[in-house]
Amino acid sequence: METKILLPETELPEAWFNIIPRLPKPPAPPLDPRSGEPIKPEDLLTIFPRALVEQEMSPEPWIEIPEEVKKVYRLWRPTPLRRAHNLEKALKTPARIYYKDESVSPPGSHKPNTAVAQAYYNKKEGIRRLATETGAGQWGSALAFACKIFNLECTVYMVKVSFEQKPFRKSLMHIWGAEVFPSPSERTAAGRRILAENPKTRGSLGIAISEAVEDAATHEDTNYALGSVLNHVLLHQTIIGLETQKQLEQIEERPDILIGCVGGGSNFAGFTFPFIGEILEGRLSAEVIAVEPTSCPTLTKGVYRYDFGDTAGLTPLLLMHTLGHTFEPPGIHAGGLRYHGDAPLICQLVKEGVIKPRAYPQNPCFEAAVLFAQTEGIIPAPETSHAIRAVIDEAIKCRETGEEKTIVFCFSGHGHFDLAAYDAFLEGKLEDYEYPEEKIREALEKLPKFPTGL
């Protein structure tokens, strides 16, 4: 019984997988909020390089990975697929549990899969600096790493509550040369306006996105880089699922259940989309579960309609499940899951019943993470703990039914910089949040009357 299923570097995928041509119907286009008409590709060139704009809208089933990107990928890819033997034993389950370990990258998460690609394409077009947002800091540290590799400057707007909770992720970004500011900040018009309205705000990813987009749009030598949600970001992450497919074939396994945590959707999409392509073609039958926090229940309680991707309304309108772009979730430790919307491609597949969403409070997730750390040895990121909670619940179901299902999940990142959160959990000081539905309704009522998409 193998514990680590490894691929040689020669098996590194040559191209990213594009799910768009496999969808039952084309995805809804982003809309210009002023006209209500679909955004033109040239409208996005003020903050994105041409290559990424082309990928965002590409109908091609495969997008070749540049050799310069593969060269950086080889620092840690292909990543291991691991069998969780000890967890299976602790749960007394007949299920076989595997996890794709994305924690082995230099920043410790899946995020550099797209950060490296985005930095490469921007450098190629002569951009000097990238501006971005980050929640818990996984994306900010990944982009800082990628910018250092390609000799770009990097500015990160970090959600204020995470800026205060996670000082070591700031340290990581600083080591790789990035400048990091708590968001909202006084550096942008959007930040100043939000601080004037609510000086005690703890920030949100929507606010941080507004600041980063404004920064990029007002500086000619600067572009914006996004860590999740957009099609080209999810595309780059499919290297996770493509490797996982090869590794499962190597040991003659087929997944019955695929699980990942979802904030904006990048690790989940990257892991599941190659398999969903098989599902849509009738070549695989598997349950696909997307796990989010009850404090930010976008897929489970949000509405499916057009909304802004940021708080200030600077982005195009995206058709997605949303809690309203002014929604400000509680300061849970899974900062990467505190986003008001989700990737439109994921939302479309939820709407069509291909993906099943599920939400958990943070204490049961930390409980699952501690059990995982005690059995498998790796400390999960708080975001990853949500996937592990669902894995354990599915494995317990298998124990009760006697079914020998194969459960595969994405271990999206380690929690080495989240130990204060684990201390709080072990001391019984973590709060559980189930965001009140009336608060969600209030945020949704503030939405402008742009198209619902329904």
Automatic annotation (TrEMBL):
GO cellular component, one term: cytoplasm
Keywords attached to this entry: Amino-acid biosynthesis, Aromatic amino acid biosynthesis, Lyase, Pyridoxal phosphate, Tryptophan biosynthesis
SUPFAM superfamilies membership: Tryptophan synthase beta subunit-like PLP-dependent enzymes
Domain Tryptophan synthase beta chain-like PALP: start-end pairs: 75-413
EC number: 4.2.1.20
Modified residues (N6-(pyridoxal phosphate)lysine): K111
Catalytic activity: (1S,2R)-1-C-(indol-3-yl)glycerol 3-phosphate + L-serine = D-glyceraldehyde 3-phosphate + L-tryptophan + H2O
Domain of life of the native organism: Bacteria
GO molecular function, one term: tryptophan synthase activity
Pathway(s) it belongs to: Amino-acid biosynthesis; L-tryptophan biosynthesis; L-tryptophan from chorismate: step 5/5
Gene3D superfamilies, A to Z: 3.40.50.1100
Name of the top EC class for this enzyme: lyase
Cofactor(s) needed: pyridoxal 5'-phosphate
Function description: The beta subunit is responsible for the synthesis of L-tryptophan from indole and L-serine.
Subunit comment: Tetramer of two alpha and two beta chains.
HAMAP family to which the protein is assigned, alphabetical: Trp_synth_beta (MF_00133)
Family note: Belongs to the TrpB family.
PANTHER family per UniProt: TRYPTOPHAN SYNTHASE, TRYPTOPHAN SYNTHASE-RELATED
UniProt protein name: Tryptophan synthase beta chain
Organism name: Thermosulfurimonas dismutans
This protein's encoding gene: trpB
